[in-house]
């Protein structure tokens, strides 16, 4: 049924739960012959991830954060990231989240690309940005956030990925995108 890319299935949706940030739907996918499958899906408004580059070309650092995540019940090493507000442009969200989570404001935000974070589970689309010309302005954490900021040498960041210390997929992908775009020299 779904193996033939020339067949366009019809999809019917049923809301299972309207959440505070995300909705959960049951999707029934039917091909032209009438065969159907049902899948559950997280509907997400979209998000951003930011690669903040601090310092000079001689001693650049990536501003990593340590962020406690309820879903995995542990603290993860990550890049700053966040969910789009209704009608918010990705670049505005990136600027807002960078200040909220790291306490740095960027002179320049450069788009690196976009990607689906987990298409087998969710429709979340994430935009990646690099941030340069950083100025400290102070964190503006939300009430439930416990985030610490760690400017880290670029070589150490990629070593953390190789060692399995930095395991957050969106952060790893954004770092590789920034490196491939010539923003990072590691």
Overall description:
This protein has helices at about 90-100, 155-160, 170-180; strands spanning about 10-20, 25-30, 35-45, 45-55, 60-70, 75-80, 80-85, 105-115, 125-135, 145-155. It is of the alpha+beta class and about 190 residues long. The strands form two sheets. Strands 4, 5, 6, 7, 8, 9 and 10 form a seven-stranded mixed sheet that branches. A three-stranded antiparallel sheet has the order 1-2-3, with no helix packed on it. The longest helix has 13 residues, at about 90-100. It starts with 9 loop residues before the first strand and ends in a 6-residue tail after the last helix. The model has no long low-confidence stretch (mean pLDDT about 95).
What ranges have pLDDT less than 50 throughout 5 or more consecutive residues? none
Q: Write down the overall geometry.
A: elongated
Characterize the biggest β-sheet: 7 strands, mixed
- Mean pLDDT, all residues: 93
Please provide the count of β strands: 10
With helices defined by DSSP (H or I, 4 residues minimum), what is the helix count?
3
Helix content: 10-25%
User: What percent strand?
Assistant: 35-45%
Spell out the helices and strands N to C: EEEEEEEHEEEHH
Class by SSE composition? alpha+beta
How far apart the termini lie comes to 45 Å
Radius of gyration: 19 Å
Quick structural overview:
The chain is α+β, with helices and mostly antiparallel strands and 186 residues long. It has 3 helices and 10 strands, in the order βββββββαβββαα. Strands 4, 5, 6, 7, 8, 9 and 10 form a 7-stranded mixed beta sheet that branches.
